[in-house]
Amino acid sequence: MLSFSIAPARVGDAAEILALQRQNHVSNLPAHTLANGFVTTQLSPDTLAHMCAEQGVWTARDSSGVLAAYACANAWGFYGEGPFHSAALALFPLELDGRLARADNSFQYGPVCVGESFRGQGVLWRLIETIKAHYAPQFEFGVTFIDARNARSLAAHERKLGFCRLADLPFESVTYHVLAFPSR
User: How confident is the model at residue 1 (pLDDT cuts 50, 70, 90)?
Assistant: First the structure.
């Protein structure tokens, strides 16, 4: 297993994060490669810079400093108002292991993107463990949304990380699986 360093992204990391996003965005991949996983959210340079400045993006780098992955995680209020945000918040409360996840005791995790050559090497687990530790003092749960077409991401989050699928969220022409996990 490779060694990875996990750290909050800096504004100077934005170009590398955007390049990794472009390489793995569903709109840039041939249909026959989608089974290998993809990212659906396109962060703009301005949004990403703001997220980096607020410590809302985490990076994983291999021992030579190559960006292997990034993951976003923020309080619900960070995202402001918008149709997807409103639809997501309408799902609360969500029950997980007899406890209720609400907007005030959970954070939104995602998007997340692992570079193709780093998949299956434990980098996603390292990212989520770091994010959990960061948010545990403030939030009991993390909640994420995975495009129903992205079977690889769903398997990684459910089987490898132990996230629980709690609901589905149809939005525009896509259905998202809603998953949650305890942060403590």
Answer: low
**What is the pTM (predicted TM-score) of this model?**
0.92
Please write the tens of the pLDDT for every residue from 51-70: 998 899 999 999 999 999 99
Say which CATH topology domain 4-182 has.
Aminopeptidase (3.40.630)
CA end-to-end distance (rounded Å), the chain: 26
CB of 72 closer than 8 Å to CB of 111: yes
Amino acid in position 111:
P
Q: Work out the burial of residue 84: count CB atoms within 10 Å of its CB; fewer than 13 is exposed, 13-18 middle, 19 or more buried.
A: middle
Residues 6+ apart with CB under 8 A from 138: 75, 107
* 8 Å CB contact between 116 and 36: yes
